[in-house]
């Protein structure tokens, strides 16, 4: 992994952890309260409004990238864990290991197959059967 990507990833993790803390939320609320209280002092001027608009826009813009980085990393980790569970489960279909890489049409075909399996299992349950191929404990 290139050094710059690693540094960004480390920064994104640290910033995400920091920004997700209750104290940071409290600080953000406090800043908004201070801004509201200073409204009358500045006559609710355009500049007064521009300060909060600019500040929140910049923070939102930057947080989108941090959140996306964190979400991508979490999703990849979950996919690897799920892939390992599929791989390690005897009788599991290993063709399912990288579904997230398939085109939408291929993924839809898999989803339809599993929807049909679920419908068949519900029908078996209604007839008093089992919804698994494993005997009850």
From TrEMBL:
Top-level taxon in the UniProt lineage: Bacteria
Record's keyword terms, sorted: Membrane, Transmembrane, Transmembrane helix
Pfam families linked: Iron_permease (PF04120)
Bilayer-spanning residue ranges: 24-42, 48-67
Name this polypeptide is given: Low affinity Fe/Cu permease
Organism: Hydrogenophaga laconesensis
